[in-house]
Amino acid sequence: MTRVAFVDDHESVRLGVEAACARTGTTHVVFSGATVTAYLAWRRAEHADPADVVVLDLTLGDGTTVTENVTRLVADGSEVIIYSVADRPAAVREALLAGAAGVISKASPIDDVVGAIATVARGDVLNTVEWASAIEGDRAFADAQLSAREREVLKLYAAGLPLKIVAERLGIAFSTAKENITRIRVKYIEVGRPAPTKVDLLRRALEDGLLTAHSVGAHGA
């Protein structure tokens, strides 16, 4: 059962998505409220575990920034989906850089929103038109300046192959492939785009055009 929280200062929006989630039988809404502060206060008061996924409005009425809100939620242990009208790509980019797992438009069918929650809860990358438009041609995603070999390793590894298989396909030692992944992570940290997990590396590969949503998993075939 996926535990989900909704943070949006429009109650009607929250109620609609909550109802859709309740119908799935696989999603349990643990919190619904207008601010991240209220959600975290509820967590402390109830001694509750973090929600698996927090669906967060891009702009709340309490004066907080999207970076503040995403950072607090990610640090608290939840994945974050930005639920937005998606007409502010700069703010969406800010959310993604702060660690949001993806973005989905409030104009999307409600089933797509429920599907996005399930996708992120599984640990998969949420690829949407809104995400693509936010990062397409965006210079805010600083170039990590990966070498040709590092790009090859990242492309295969992020697409889903075990590192041992990546090494075999490229004709290099496992230790060399491992060193490449370490250097790749360091380079992303240096440009302010940390990638501590394999899912994060997949996000970076997608952001940088090394992979497309359609190619993920194809390398393992």
How would you sum up this structure, described in words?
This protein has two domains: about 1-135, Response regulator (Rossmann fold, 3-Layer(aba) Sandwich), CATH 3.40.50.2300; about 150-220, Orthogonal Bundle (Arc Repressor Mutant, subunit A), CATH 1.10.10. Helix content is about 50%, strand content about 15%. It has helices at about 10-25, 35-45, 65-75, 90-100, 110-120, 130-135, 150-160, 165-170, 175-190, 200-205; strands at about 1-5, 25-35, 55, 80-85, 100-105. Strands 2-1-3-4-5 form a five-stranded parallel sheet, sandwiched between helices. The two termini are about 30 Å apart. About 35% of the residues are buried. The model has no long low-confidence stretch (mean pLDDT about 85).
Roughly what fraction of the amino acids lie in strands?
A: 5-15%
- Count of DSSP E strands? 5
Helix percentage: 40-55%
Q: State the domain count.
A: 2
Specify the number of helices: 10
SS class: alpha/beta
Which CATH architecture of the largest domain would you pick?
Answer: 3-Layer(aba) Sandwich
From the spread of the alpha carbons, the general shape counts as elongated
Cα(first) to Cα(last) distance is 30 Å
CATH superfamily of the largest domain: Response regulator
Largest sheet: 5 strands, parallel
Q: Quote the average pLDDT.
A: 86
Supply the CATH class of the largest domain. Alpha Beta
* Global Rg: 18 Å
H/E topology pattern? EHEHEHEHEHHHHHH
CATH fold-level assignment of the largest domain: Rossmann fold
- Low-confidence segments, given as residue ranges, are none
Order of strands across the biggest sheet? 2-1-3-4-5
